[in-house]
Amino acid sequence: MDNAKASPRTSITRRRFLGVSSGILAGLHFQSHAQDQTVESAKPRIRKLGTLDLDLVETTPVVFKDRVYRFEYVRPGYWDNATGDSYFRFTDRETGEASAPFAKGYHLGCAMVEGGTIYVMGTNIWDGERIDIFVSNDMEHWETWNVLNLPGYGIFNTSLCTIHDGYMLMYEVGKPPEVAGTRFTALFARSSDLRQWELMPPECTYSKDRYTAPHALRHHNGYYYNFFLEAVNGGYEQYVVRSKDLIVWELSPLNPVLKASDEDKQIANDKLSPEQREVVANATNINNSDIDFCEHNGKLIINYSWGNQHGTEFLAEAEFDGTLADFLESWFPS
After folding, report:
1. N or C: which end of the chain has fewer CB within 10 A?
2. Mind listing the pLDDT tens digit for each residue in 274-297?
3. Which homologous superfamily is 35-330 in?
């Protein structure tokens, strides 16, 4: 028999096998698609509003004296920064008016409002060893003191939240490697008065085994919620985990919280110039990161960044109809 040819029986058997295999694969694809659709329909509905600015990344929306402000870390290379250095400021969400700059030379800040007082954390330098706090009742006069001083560490983003008996600070580290593992990793410190701080045990972390850059920390109903950046599929997506002890973490079955989409490039700031709008339209978008949010009038105001995760980045805004408690709990359906 010519080995180059298959017998009719062999050909029929092969066609039947291929037909069954194709059917199985089609069924698996349909099942996967159905599961994806189920996850999407169960997710909290975040409505993306579009781009607010260029070259702004780390921001925190807060409510202060019944107005929504956006804490902004202004980088040296920001298009409207003529100072030659980094600094912090607050921008009125409604009017766009910015406060006077403060914390010159500081980086990667975060903000929290409690009562009538604003608290801002900042890293002394990029990849720094020190975190300081800035405190004000009017956005004009600032008191400052040291929070953490960790020689040999490389500190980046921070996030501060209230807990039942004080405050918890999440801070991102890239070194030393025996502490950080895979850069970039969340560590934690605790305080009862924002002046005396205690480092949490080394097992309180997320996560040394892979890229999980932390962005926003909240505490609700006994759980810590950590919104972080996960590296996936050639890009970066915003994920959330929760924990009762900062050691054992539960990944949301509804992740990702945010991922890159065409909605990111909508224009949500009519003051952007035609040239800036063109930059937005032509930009590479593989990333949704640096999420933070605040509750105002029964709605969550969300800021996040998008771009290429390598320096060309944009500030965007989104909304969620519901309370902060609704938002946090809905990522972990019972």
Report:
1. C
2. 999 999 999 999 999 999 999 999
3. Glycosyl hydrolase domain; family 43 (2.115.10.20)
